[in-house]
Amino acid sequence: MIRTVFTETALFLSPFVAYALFLWATRSGLIHPFTWSPRELGWVTVVALLAVIGGFVAIAEFSGGRPGAAYVPAHVESGRLVPGTVK
Question: Mapping DSSP to helix (H, G, I), strand (E, B) and coil, where does residue 46 land?
Answer without folding.
Answer: helix
